[in-house]
């Protein structure tokens, strides 16, 4: 669909622990960045990286979806002018394994996202070829 | 015609399926006049021309006059911007996910 990054990771853990890794501020600090995250729709938070000469290190986010029943979490992710949406889904795989699916889309406005939805998948493969030329 | 200072965001430019199709068509040829592009679409030359203008504003297309016709050419460089954020965040999350794995496995051992 749209311009996006998609990644899947499998872990030997429980779905409850995986969900807490995504939603608990202290857990997030251990594997992403220091933050004031709360899993409440509408909550505005920041991830704080080390500032450098190009960037103040601040990632601004707002919680968009918290669906604990279907283990879906979505928030906006803004660095300067660039606005992304990060969406996580946790899936039980059985035998003590869970799958964490990450989707990060890179459009700041909905019309652009809708416009890009059609035909992106095929096109994206072409992009690498074009850049290689 | 410079692509150093594009007046339009490359993400806007590629958000439309017609413009992505145009980029694809242009990537298959060296240089092409407008009428050879318009035959590929169910829209008039004015509409196609407007899309080309947007691509020009994003620095993705350059044009030049050859006799009576204008020929268009792809400049793929701004597309690197798109690939860059994807690869940047791929690396960012891969590193973090590895850290998460250690975190979750540590907890398992406790």
List the helices and strands and how they pair.
The complex is a heterodimer of chains A (133) and B (110).
Chain A: E1 4-12, H1 15-23, H2 25-31, E2 44-48, E3 58-67, E4 72-79, E5 82-94, E6 97-105, H3 110-117, H4 120-132
Antiparallel strand pairs in A: 1-6, 2-3, 3-4, 4-5, 5-6
Helix pairs in contact in A: 1-2
Chain B: H1 10-13, H2 17-28, E1 32-33, H3 34-38, H4 45-57, E2 61-66, E3 69-74, H5 79-109
Antiparallel strand pairs in B: 1-3, 2-3
Helix pairs in contact in B: 2-4
Record keyword descriptors for this entry.
heterodimer; A: Alpha-D-Glucose-1,6-Bisphosphate, Chain A, domain 4; six-stranded antiparallel β-sheet; 6 strands; globular; B: 110 residues; alpha+beta; Arc Repressor Mutant, subunit A; 3 strands; 13% strand; START-like_dom_sf (chain A); ASHA1/2-like_C (chain A); DNA binding (chain B); DNA-binding transcription factor activity (chain B); DNA-binding (chain B)
Identify low-pLDDT runs of chain A: 108-125
The biggest beta sheet of chain B reads: 3 strands, antiparallel
CATH topology assignment of chain A: Alpha-D-Glucose-1,6-Bisphosphate, Chain A, domain 4
How far is it from the N-terminal to the C-terminal residue of chain A, by CA?
24 Å
Task: Please outline the major beta sheet of chain A.
Answer: 6 strands, antiparallel
Helix residue percentage of chain A: 25-40%
Spatial order of strands in the largest sheet of chain B: 1-3-2
CATH topology of the largest domain in chain B: Arc Repressor Mutant, subunit A
Assembly state (oligomeric): heterodimer
The termini of chain B sit apart by 63 Å
* Overall radius of gyration of chain B: 21 Å
The CATH first-level class of chain A comes to: Alpha Beta
Q: What fraction of residues of chain B sit in β-strands?
A: 5-15%
């Amino acid at each position: 669909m749209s311009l996006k990054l998609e990644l899947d990771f499998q872990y030997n853990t429980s779905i409850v622990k995986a969900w807490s890794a995504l939603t608990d501020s202290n857990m997030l600090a251990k594997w992403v960045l220091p933050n004031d995250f709360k899993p409440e729709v509408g909550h505005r938070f920041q991830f704080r990286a080390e500032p450098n000469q190009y960037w103040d290190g601040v990632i601004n986010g707002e919680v968009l979806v918290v669906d604990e029943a279907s283990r879906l979490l979505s928030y906006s992710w803004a660095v300067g002018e660039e606005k992304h949406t990060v969406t996580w889904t946790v899936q039980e795989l059985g035998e003590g394994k869970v799958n964490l699916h990450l989707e990060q889309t890179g459009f700041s406005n909905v019309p652009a996202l809708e416009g890009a939805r059609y035909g992106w998948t095929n096109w994206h493969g072409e992009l690498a070829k074009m850049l290689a030329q | 015609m410079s692509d150093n200072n594009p007046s339009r965001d490359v993400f806007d430019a590629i958000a439309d399926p017609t413009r992505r199709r145009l980029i694809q068509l242009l990537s298959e040829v060296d240089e092409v006049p407008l009428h050879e592009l318009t035959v590929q679409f169910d829209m008039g030359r004015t509409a196609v021309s407007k899309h080309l203008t947007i691509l020009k504003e994003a620095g993705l297309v350059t044009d030049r006059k050859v006799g009576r016709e204008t020929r268009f050419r792809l400049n793929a460089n701004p597309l690197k911007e798109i690939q860059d954020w994807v690869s940047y965040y791929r690396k960012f999350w891969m590193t973090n996910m590895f850290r998460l794995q250690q975190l979750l496995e540590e907890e398992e051992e406790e």
